[in-house]
Amino acid sequence: MKKTANLSASIFSKMSQKSRSNHIKLKNRKKLSRNYMMKSHQKSQDSKNYPDLFVALPTHNMLHALVQNNPVR
Measured between alpha carbons, how far apart are the two ends of the chain, in Å? Predict the structure, then answer.
C-alpha cells in the first residue's frame, strides 16, 4: 500500500504543471459526477418511498404557468 502511494507521488512530481492540474481537474470531475449520481439516485429512492410528498411540490414550470394565468390586478 505504502509502496504504491510513493510510486504515484513520484510520478505526480515528475508531471508537468499543466498535466498535473489537468489530472486534478479530472479527479475532481469524477468525484463530482459520482456525488451527483448518488444524489439523484437518493432522490429517486425518496420519491419511491414518499410519492405523495413529491407530487405535492410544484415544479418551476408549474409556477410560471400559475403566474401567467393569474395576472396580479
Answer: 70
